[in-house]
Design a protein that fits this description.
- The chain has about 475 residues and is of the alpha+beta class.
- Among the domains are: about 290 residues, no CATH class; about 35 residues, no CATH class.
- Helices cover about 30% and strands about 25% of the residues.
- Strand 14 and strand 15 form a beta hairpin.
- Helix 2 runs parallel beside helix 3 and helix 6 crosses helix 7.
- It is globular and about 70 Å long.
- It starts with a helix and ends with a helix.
Length: about 475
């Protein structure tokens, strides 16, 4: 892959010259942010127990980037939230469509997966406020409309740079006896998620990592930065204060990249954005040790700065296109859900009632028992939206799940100028490969956040390949 990058950039340079040959074609870009910070006292999800917001460390935003090639408009949105359900994204898209006429499928909207944001969808024991859900949809729509209003002549480039020191596979194969039974009573797991730093039972990671940061840079014709949209396969960092609202490294990167590009004091404001890549099994913890302990927000700042420094440096090597063609392809795929049977539900219901704090669950066994009861009301299958955007020779795919890294690496191998946005357009929980399902581990334990059928990733990849082919 490394040896192909000079060739790829050479091809991009030739394409840039060809695209620019027709002076009648004008490429435009516009960017904007929209504040989506919840009120104090709101629910914070991302854990097995619910949290409550007591302090706003940094504002949450929906960061929006719009493109127009003269014929087609595309919009990318990244919202500071752990997970966002399809209803919110669809409502935001509907509002934009009604106000501007932009087709629904021309918008790619995703969540960052920061675990220190307001709850937008029921996960774990966190329940969203309907008022915050409506507010979130409206503010996302407002951000898109503002980005469209900011459309102006622009040039565009894309590139990649590796930042390997912050990504670690969190699923580990362990020595015999090193894996306890799951909260559901399963004793056949072959991997343990987040096994603990320097655990003496560690053998080896159960999968790879993807160190590549892919990014899109947009400038005015004179070279003034407009926006930068990056993509990194790192779950989140964490290490925030108790009850703190924070955008995690996603927000810190957005600020830092603007500073490094000298664009943090301009108008219209420069918009830095980073989306979540295929990080379903990737986090920032070196389980072999070697990481110094940091205070609150220390690790977030380190990761954000290192990624921003690498991207800013890579920006200096780019060749910008004065015009590129845009396109989009989208389809729905039906995915089965792993629904518990009647006997499992009855046993789980009895376990939940053992909690002294009922209806809140205390133990992990009780938490997963509650998940079993709740899943009994789910349908047997769901429709999942898949999407691929065409930006010149670049392809951006979107999957509505926490995608395992092997899936993203496979797509990159088959389509060199590609990256994947996870948690996009809907949320259907973890997406392991069938091989990782066989190994077990937290991401496969049946819950609302992990209930897709074992072959879901196979169906999703097949659907994406159809979309890639349609955009050739």
């Amino acid at each position: 892959m490394e040896g192909m990058r000079p060739l790829l950039f050479a091809i991009c340079t030739l394409l840039s010259t060809a695209y620019a040959a027709d002076p009648a074609r004008v490429f435009q870009a516009g960017a904007a942010t929209s504040n989506i910070t919840p009120e104090l006292g709101t629910s914070i999800n991302g854990g097995f127990q619910d949290g409550k917001a007591v302090f706003i460390h940094d504002e949450l935003n929906a960061r929006c980037l719009a493109f127009d090639d003269g014929t087609t408009k595309l919009v990318l949105v990244v919202a500071d939230s752990c997970v966002i359900g399809r209803g919110i994204f669809d409502e935001a898209k509907k509002m934009v469509n009604e106000a501007t006429g932009l087709p629904l499928e021309n918008m790619l909207m995703s969540a960052t997966h920061s675990h220190s944001c307001g709850t937008a969808q029921a996960v774990g024991q966190s329940e969203p406020s309907p008022m915050y859900q409506r507010f979130l949809a409206k503010r996302i729509a407002d951000g898109v409309r503002r980005a469209l209003n900011n459309l102006a002549p622009a040039k565009i480039a894309w590139g990649t740079v590796d930042v390997p020191q912050h990504v670690f596979n969190r699923r580990w194969k362990m020595k015999p006896g090193g894996i306890p039974a799951t909260p559901l009573g399963v004793t056949t797991d072959q991997v343990k998620t987040n096994p603990g730093v320097n655990n003496p039972n560690l053998l080896e990671p159960a999968g790879p990592t993807d160190p590549q940061v892919c990014f899109i840079s947009v400038q005015s014709p004179e070279g003034k930065p407009i926006a930068l949209y990056a993509n990194y396969s790192l779950h989140y960092v964490g290490g925030v204060g108790p009850g703190h609202i924070s955008a995690d490294y996603f927000g810190a990167f957005a600020n830092r990249i603007g500073e490094l590009l000298g664009a943090d004091q301009q108008g219209p404001p420069f918009v830095g954005i980073i989306s979540n890549g295929t990080s379903g099994d990737i986090n920032n913890i070196d389980f072999r040790g070697g990481q110094a302990k940091e205070g609150p927000y220390g690790r977030i700042k380190i990761v954000a700065n290192d990624v921003a420094q690498a991207v800013a440096g890579a920006c200096k090597t780019l060749n910008y296109h004065e015009w590129v063609p845009l396109g989009v392809a989208q389809k729905e795929v039906m995915l089965g859900l792993r629904i518990p049977n009647k006997d499992e539900v009855e046993k789980a219901s009895a376990v939940t009632k053992q909690s002294k704090l009922f209806p809140r669950m205390e133990t992990m066994e009780q938490v997963y028992a509650r998940e079993t009861v709740l899943l009994s009301d789910f349908p047997k299958e769901v429709s999942a939206p898949l999407q691929v955007l065409k930006i010149g020779e670049l392809r951006v795919s979107a999957i509505p799940a926490e995608v395992f890294v092997e899936i993203g690496l496979g797509l990159k191998q088959r389509h060199p100028q590609t990256f994947t946005v996870s948690l996009a357009n809907a949320y259907h929980g973890y997406l392991p490969t069938p091989e990782q399902h066989q190994l077990g581990g937290y991401e496969t334990w049946r819950a609302r956040s992990a209930c897709l059928e074992v072959d879901a990733s196979t169906k999703i990849v097949a659907g994406l390949e159809e979309l890639f082919s349609s955009l050739q």
